[in-house]
Each structure stands twice: as structure tokens, then as C-alpha cells.
Fold each of these.
Amino acid sequence: MKMTTCRLGLREQAAFMRLHWPQFRTEVHGPLLRSFGQLQPTAIGDVYSVKVSMRGGMSPEVRVIEPKLLTRTDLGRVPHMYDQERLCLHTPMYDEWTPSMPISVTIVPWAVLWLHYYEVWHATGEWLGGGHEPDESKEYSTKNECHERFPKPR
């Protein structure tokens, strides 16, 4: 017997966001969900204003609005980011996140963890969050499946 899962619609995703993250301002306009709020990875960590957005059927995106994420002097970029704009929270080709999963219990908590790893990396130079990054020295790396599944919003 094959088990099927239901894709959550944007309004259902928004309802889960309002339930689990009531301090976020969540809105759905046509095919776009946007949610704005603040995350603090630890009691002594910075407070980050973030924007979570999702187009129907696409993978969600998380952007840090402020404070600006800073690079280290020994590395010209922040690791585990798409185009230095969006947090890399999962690997789409492994289906670590699917549209049947509420973003409120997956993507947002993963963003909190990512911000914690960012703060540790910024202090120590070592990324402890696991995962992998594309080889940006190769031309194809900017056109890999991750980027195709995370299109830039219009």
C-alpha cells in the first residue's frame, strides 16, 4: 500500500505560522506567502529580523533583513547561503523539506539553528552546522538544482 502525503497550501502554511509563531506578521497575497518576524538563536545572541517567503509549490526562502550578516576577514562570504542573500537550510535534491511539511516546524526552526551556527562561525571560523556547499569555482555551481528550486522572487 502506497502512502500519500498532501501538499499544504499557502493559507494552511500561514495558519501554521500564526499558530506556532504568533509574533510573526504573516500574510498571503495570491500565490505568495510572506512572514516577517524576529529570531534570536540563543539568550545571548543577536536578534535577527527575518523574512520567510514562499510561492505556491516552491521551496520556502529565508532572508535576514537586519542586522546585515557579516563576513569574516579570512573569508569573503558567509557560508551556506544562496547568492549571499538566502539561507541554505536543506538540500532540495534529498527532499529534506517537502510541501507537505509546515514551514513553522521545519524551515523557521532550521533558520534559528542556522543563525546559531552563523554566530559560532563568526566567532571561531568553523561552521559546525554540517551540510555542504557548491564549488563556486566551477561555472555550473550557480545553476545547480538548489538554485533552480530556490528562484529569486520577482
Note: Residues 134-154 have pLDDT under 50 and may be disordered.
Amino acid sequence: MRNRRVFSTRVSLPLAAVVLLAGVAAAGAQTSAGTAAGKTQQPAAAPAKAASSSGATAAKAPSFTKHFYHAPDGTFYVPAGVPIRMSIGLGTGASTVHKGKGASDHSSVVLKQGPNTLQFGIARVPVIADGTPPSTTLSYSADPHVRKGGLLILGPHPLLQVTASDGLSGVAETLVSLDGGAFEPLPAGGPAFTKSGDHVLRYFSVDHVGNVEPMQRFAFRLDKTPPTTELHITGPRAGSVVGSGAVLSLTAQDADAGVKAIQFSIDGGAEQAWTKPLQFDALSQGRHSIQFAATDRVENAEKPQTFSFIVDRTPPQIALAIHGPEYTDTGVRYVTPQATISLSARDAVAGVVPVRYSIDGGPEKSYRSPFHLPGVSGIHHLQLEAKDSVGNVKQIAVDDIYVDRTAPDT
């Protein structure tokens, strides 16, 4: 047969009697300070694999010993379903037990859940047998949260509340393990998580007679990272200058909870939800700014961004200069075949690309240096075009230059 150990405690009775109750434990059972040897119990494993968020092996839960509990209100609790060995002796106080003569021993009994009475002759000792472990529940605050692919994602400041209840001997303590770490008593303010990423909380409770609740596991992702928003412009643009037909769009990304909304305002006006691209043609010409930011589905808010820009719908200015003898009469400019023509364009906002021109309906050319008009006497037609960097176009027809190859009569 296996050797068996017992654990005991004392209860003061009338007439200075002392009752000793003993639980039978398996051979080799551990003991802990303040209790005698008893049946050792560990919390059952959590439903899912209890590993840390980093993948390292999780710390093991501590063991607990079955024992008796004398509550402050005088109620005496014993473990249910555990063999109890009883003895009675006479003494002068609760701290003194006289064994031998006058003492009696009884065989062990197993008490059922609930109130019981142990009787020694005329002495009756009421006890409550407790074989039910505590029940621990976890809840999280009403902060926004989402489920994504079966994973619970909590916002930046979650409040996790762990509460335990026990209908008989009461909850002795609740232990928690954060991300595979050692089990520790539940902090007064609840478990706290500060870093973004995946986390695992393991927890269980034990009552005053050593009944241990099966371990529970709560896995979630803490999302403290705000979305990021990008601005895109299609159509004519040169740096921060945009032209007619340009369109602005905003897109936001969030890797965890997902984007909830983008808010924006124009020129410091009322904030509004982003629903469609912004047509720059709807704005007046000149300087403007747009401020925008995104929030995700657990209320992480992006730091507002600002983009300042200029709406430019004004075409460049074109200037033509004649170099050489020139005479104007009745709106016609007379020049010699040796005269040259220079062209220039100016745009104060977007800047210009090279001026293009054609002579007498000929092929269009990019202006690079002064040029001569054809040597044929008569009026020559110039078509000039200048375009700025955002597509604003200026076109000019010049029909008043007359090349005069005829010398005067003397």
C-alpha cells in the first residue's frame, strides 16, 4: 500500500475540547508554510496553447495544497471529496491537545459538498465542505475594439478587468501571467499592457481550501499605432502649383484595426469626412491649404498633416522684340530682311516651358535664339504659343510685320 500523509488544524470547542481534522494525501505530497501536508493541485491547462507572445516557453503555474479554512465569521471550511480523519482530545485551550488517555480516534470520512456536521459524542462541529473552485471572468472596457480574422484587437488604452467569485470558502487569490511570464497576484488596477503587438494573458483563481480553477487564456492584439495618410495629385502639377483639371485624392492605411475615416478641412474651414477626390477647379485661383488626418477603428488618431498649394489658371505672358531697323506706319511694322526677331515668355507662378512659334503657317518650332523672317517682301504671319508648367496656354497671332526689301527711289 502507498504511504499516506495527513494534514490537520484545530478548532476550539466548548468544554475545552479540541477537534482535529485530517485530510489524506498521496504519498510524497508537498507542504507549504502554515498548512500540513495535503493533496497538491495545479490549474488545468488553458484551452489553447499557453505560450508567450514572443513564442518562448510560458512559465508554469504554481501548485496549491488542499487545506482547511477557519473564516473570520467562525465558519469552518474543509475540502469536499477529500478523506477526513478525526480525533478528539481534552485540553485547557485551543493551543493544547492531550492525546492518549481520554482521546479517541475515528476512521476517515469523505464529506459531500455543502454543510456537514461532525459529531463526537455530545460534541457537534458544523463544517462546510467545499469542492468547487472559484470562477474568474475577464472583461474589457468599452473602448473601441474590433475582431479581424478571429483576432481581437483592442485600442491604445484598454482596461482589462479580472474578477473572481466563490460561493463557499471564498476567493483566496487570483494569479495572472502576462505574455508567458511568471504568475503573480492580480494587480489592484487589473493587468496592464503598454506595448503594441500580440499579447496573452493567463489567469486563474484559488479558493481558501485550495480548490484551483482551470487556467484561462485571453489572447489579443494591442493597437497603439495610428493610420498613415498619403496625398496624391493627378493632372497638371509643378511642385505645389496645380492647374486646371488637377485632382487631389487621399488614401489611408492601417495594418491592424483598419481605417475608420479620413477627416479634412480646406483653408482652416469646418472639418468634414473625406468621401471623394477634390477637384481643384472648385477652388478659387491663388493660395490654399488642406489639412487632413485619419483615425482607425480603435480610435488611434493620426497627427494632422498640411499641404499648401497654389491654384494657377493664368497663362504666361509672351513678348516679341525686333532687333534692327524698324518703322511703324498705320499699325504696320516695317523691317529690313536683316532684322531679327526674339521671343520671351514669363510666368510668375508655375514657370514656363520654351515658347513655340511658326512662320506663315509652316512647321512649329521651339524658340531657342533670335531668327530672321523670310526674305520675301510683304507681311509675314507669326503664330506664337507659350505654356506654363501646369498647362496654362497663351497663343498670339502676329500679323503686322512687313519685310521690306525695296530700296527707296531717289
Note: The longest strand covers residues 197-207.
Amino acid sequence: MNCAADNLLEADSRGDQPLIRTRRLLLRAFAAGDAPDVQRLAGEREVAATTLNIPHPYPPGAAEQWIATHRPRWQQGTLCCYAVVRLSDEILIGSVGLSIDPEDRLAELGYWIGKPYWGRGYATEAAEALVRFGFGGLGLTAIRARHMSRNLASGRVLAKLGMSHQAHGAKQVEKWGVPEDMEHYAIRVSEGSRNTVSATYQIDGEDFADLEGFYDVFERAVLGGRKWGRNIDALNDVLRGGFGTPDGGFTLVWRNSELSRKRLGSPWGVVGSDWAEKSTFEVLIEVIKAHGRGGDEAEDGVQLVLA
């Protein structure tokens, strides 16, 4: 299977691809410096043997050329290809992506994981995150996938994503001169709704230097300029799905968060507050995280990505 999204994402659709974080993985756009790792991992015969479009041997320079197509095609709305990076050591371990028909809001899922990282559930974890983003962040109505019939591991991944088997195709493709049978899968937005991330919003630490500035940027990015209370209680209401935000939660990408940590480093200072000794940045992070996985209000489904 090979990578390959639509510019249906409203927030920064023609800018950088949003980061997607899972329990063990970070999905980010490929960079030119990733080319050696791509060539090494995708160049393994065992990886190429289970994919439709990865050549073997992997030609010198092919990884650089492949990566160079990603940003233009993301901006055109035809490609969303992510590097799969392991959070524990920041090692690139594979790729996952969606090839999208923007007019019909359909996509084909593709992925590969380097052989040293097989058997650990990384493909399922990365693909599940991208399916959620595809439905919630990109507004897709259906996502398809296919794999060679002999690649049973890929079939297990698709089944774990909740995809339904649609058809068996005899000798539909040829790989290295050998006809291959194919299995076809699909999942539609109603079937994937339980895994959907409703939207992705981005704020940038370079755009504000104090709490009021944060409220300004948050208001524009998340609320579309709609007026709100501009205080912690109102922020909690927004994170719970108030003021027109998605009931199913959303992902908030906070770019240049380390700059915000410095700029918002002054004490919260509210007398009698449990946060009196914490910085403004720490309070905001604590409040947002309370509405996501592991928080007191995890059911709100808010995902914070510090970039």
C-alpha cells in the first residue's frame, strides 16, 4: 500500500499539515532530511514485496523526489502523506497517508512500516489516527483500502480499523511479473464516527505574548471570531463543546509552545486559587488537558498537541 488529502480541512488547509499525536506515535509531514531513512526502510525487499508502488531495489534519489511532491500536492488538495515517528526515541519508522478524490470526498488509505518495527501494532495505531482525522478533520465521507491477498497482516490491520471487506479481486495487479489477487475494504463516516476527531485547530505562540493575546488568538482560531467570556470558566465551556465547538471534541495544535512557555511564564497569581504558584502557561495547559485522555473530563475528547 502506498501513501497518498484534500484541502477540506478549514484551519490552515494550504499551510503546513497538522501534527497528529497518538499514545506512542507522532505523525508529521516528511522533511528532506528523512530521505535516507525512507530509502533504508522502504528499500527492504520484504517491505516492497507487500506494496503496490514501492520499487526494489530502491533507486538512489527516489526518496528525495517522492518527499518533494508532498507539500505541493497537499496544497493542491490531492495528497496527505505523513511520516510515522516513534515518540519514545523520535525515530522514523514508516509512512501513512490518504489519497483523496476531493470532489467526491473519498480517499484511499495507504501505509508501510519498516521491517524492524513489524508486529508491534504501529501500523494500526497510525492508520486509526489518520482515519479519524480523515473523517473529522478533512470531512471525508468514505475511506477505502486494498491489499494483496497474501498479505494477511494488512488485512488484520484494516479489520481492526473497523473496515468492512467489500470484494476479492482475482489477478487484479502484477507485482514483479507475478499476477496478484487483491482484497478491497471500505469504511464510511457513520461507521467510523466513534473514532472521529471532529476538527483540528491551530494556534501559534508567536502570535501572542500574554493571556489576553492568547484569548484573542484562540477566539479567532477555534471560535471563528465568535464572542465568549474570555476567562477560564468560559474556556472550560468551549472545551466541553460550548460556543459552537464540536460536541465530539477537537484537536488543538499549539505551535511554538516553548516560546509560549517563556512568554506566559508569569505566575497565575489569583489569590486563593490552587494555581496561584503556577505560571499562566501551566494553568492553560492543565485546563486543556483536563478535557482529553487521562483528564477529569476526558469524555470531551479534546486532544492537545504541543509543537
Note: The mean pLDDT is 85.
